[in-house]
Amino acid sequence: MSLHVVMGFGPAGAATARLLVEEGHSVRVVTRSGRGAEPGIEHIALDATDGRRLAGVARGAAAIHHCAAPPYHRWAGEWPPLIASACGAAEETGAVLVMLGNLYGYGPVDGPLTEGLPLAATGVKGRVRAAGWEAARKLHDEGRIRAVEVRASDFFGPGVTDGGHLAGRVMPPLLRGKPVSTLGDPDAPHSWSHLPDVARALVEVAGEERAWGRAWHAPTGPALSVREMVGRLAAQAGTGPVAVRRLPSAVLGAASLFSPLIRELKEVRHQFDRPFVVDSTAYETEFAVRATPVDEQVEATVDWWRERLATPR
What is the pTM of this model? Predict the structure, then answer.
């Protein structure tokens, strides 16, 4: 088996690193602060914007999985140097650059999202993410690196905590049978990316030469509204029906005065105020990974959150 380097150890980075270990690979994880020992994973404290040092860590690696992400409000300043460093390390070492992308780059779209749509976002975060992939693809087209991007929707499932829209703000009250609050229209169809499926796609495309040079949507199940998802989660948890309340605009406006995250979400509110449906047909036509059935996603998520909340922290 081969060496893989994972940049970042948030939900996606951690899931990807652990899956690689399960499949028998050697794994180095790069984070700014490092971490304690973990079976099969070598954690390295490193500022990933230092391309020279990142290349040293990645020497001999089959792939670099770029799963790092700065806090929302620092994307404009910190995302471009992260991409430049990852591209530089991929060029110096010959490792395949596997980028975890999102859907911000498309901007508001009428109809399902497909990979053929232009990256037409005008907001800061959407343009930053689009520019990152465009830079990597240009280097790929020039033959200087081998790059591929897997674009995911909002993360859902085991391992997704504070940043998930069906995670830290929803699961604790839901498991107590209490009402939950949500951004946007709770009845708008919405695509959710099951975190284990995203990790499996990131691992799969690293070894598939025919995947390289373009972006793919991670295998994604049917679009279900927040209200539908909460209903399924509550049924699995056995709590009975749980009320879903839309956060009023006035509350969001007040919260944005104190929360950088809430302020930054204004740019992508369209994803929750209107249907947001991902088409992953292209990926599923070409490769083996499929979206986990929704009932299995829900069961795994409820089990994970019950264990998490029952464990003293």
Answer: 0.95
